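# step 3/5: fold
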Amino acid sequence: MPKQLLDVTIRGSLRAAAIGLAQLPGAALAATDTALLPRNLSPWNMFLNADIVVQAVMVGLAFASLVTWTIWLAKTLEIRRKTALAKRRLTLLETDTVLATAEQASRGGDDAVAQLIQSAAREAGLSGGHFDDALRERIALRLERVEAAMSRQIARGTGVLATIGATAPFVGLFGTVWGIMNSFIGISEAHTTNLAVVAPGIAEALLATALGLVAAIPAVVIYNHLARTIAAHRALLGDASAMVLLLVSREGDRGAFRLSRAAE
């Protein structure tokens, strides 16, 4: 009886040892994968461990994002300041005033409406103060040129946003393709498909794509917002040009245009 119990115990021990040996390679591989996996896959560490090409792509996209927000801040402040000043000039033009008075009030100003008033007054002075249809056409031509120049000036810099919004996703995609290519090269060199070999490179590649979207999406949104704001400012300049023409025509109809120019 004791001998039979001893045989059963020995067979059970051997069976347990066999099961343990069968499971040992998988456990060892799992432990190896866990040991090889990076302990920190934060964006900064992924950037530091990335290939030099992927790092260059990430730096370029971060710089493009910085340029986007800088343009947004600068253009927003510029448009607000010029729009407020243009509205004050329009308030003056809407009163019962003459071109000489409006020109004196806007003298020295570099804003768009002041340039419109000064250009109309300059043409009137070159014409000797004689009002006729030809003078009105010359003033309208001058106002059109000044309005176009001021519109180009206020829109300066927005083309960069359009470029960033259009190209940033493709730049990020290039970084992704390069990172995945390096991951496949690492798999072939290591002769293994362990997650420890594949995961870091793919994570770095996807980070480049994410940065491309981070740079492109705000650029597109800000560009559309600035385009609407600039269009509203251009409409305001169009109103100012019309008010200057009305002012000139009103003086001509009153017969006071020559007197106002002579008084200047």
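# step 4/5: annotate
Residues 1-36 form one domain.
# step 5/5: archive (pending)
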